[in-house]
Amino acid sequence: MDLTTATWTDVRDLETDLAVVPVGSTEQHGPHAPLGTDVLTAEAIADAGIERVDREVVRAPAIPVGIAEEHRQFPGTMWVSEDTFRDYVGEAVASLAHHGFDRVVLVNGHGGNVDALREVGGRLTRAGNAYVVPFTWFAAVGEHSDDMGHGGPLETGLLRHLEPALIREDRIEAARAGGADGWGDWTSYVNMAYDAAEFTENGVVGDPDDGDAKRGEELFEGAADALARLLEAVAERDVSRPERR
Asked: How many domains does the chain have?
């Protein structure tokens, strides 16, 4: 059930404790892909994963702004601090738990959110407020994960499958020409760059033309299936905390 279109009485009558919260970011994705890429992909995979399970799941509205200050030199990018993000996600989840939806999967589409979401999940779970598990779609697509960049083949391919009109195909060559091969500026196993603009001219990392719609469909199906398996596992898991040894 989508909370955005449900009424409170619809929600009152549900018999489930399982909820999904899509989490993304509003940030640059090169000259060819939309600022909302991370939100759009998280929502689409969240909905597809829910459709694949034979149980009621509450689908919360997406959280559209995340930890993205590393893209601040590119106009349109929005961000909040890590503390604000953790607090906001945590309190949003706590409000779901207040209504009995205390098994929560956070479906994430932005790499900058990963560490904070893991911390939020651990904190809420250990406190007994809810059992919270983060799921990042591009970490769940097998060997494809090795090609994850930024506005690169995975995100471009997925959007070519989901929302092809949003990809500015006439800018793909420019995206390739101004992009970087990898994320960061590395010496002695240390990334010396803090902002994306230090190593990519136009915000792109990876070759977007390596992600066609067919690859995007494979990514979508793989991520949705992985999420469905996770939802089933979260629904069935014994979430009581271990006793002190």
From this structure: 1
Q: In this structure, are residues 115 and 29 in contact, taking their beta carbons and an 8 Å threshold? A: no
Domain residue limits at 156: 8-236
CATH of the domain at 100: 3.40.50.10310
Helix (H) and strand (E) counts for the chain?
Answer: 7, 6
Q: What is the pLDDT of residues 76-130, one digit of tens each?
A: 999 999 999 999 999 999 999 999 999 999 999 999 999 999 999 999 999 998 9
pLDDT tens by residue, 21-63:
999 999 999 999 999 999 999 999 999 999 999 999 999 999 9
d(CA 135, CA 174): 32
Cβ pair 144, 219 in contact under 8 A? yes
Cα–Cα distances in angstroms (integers) from residue 116 to residues 15, 59, 90, 104, 106, in the given order: 30, 21, 10, 15, 11
Q: At what angle do helices 153-162 and 37-51 cross, to 10 degrees?
A: 60
Q: Name which of 40, 43, 26 is nearest 164 in CA terms.
A: 40
- Whole-prediction pTM value? 0.96
243 in a structural domain: no
- Taking the CA atoms of residue 155, residue 158, residue 88 and residue 115 in that order, the dihedral angle to the nearest 10 degrees is -50
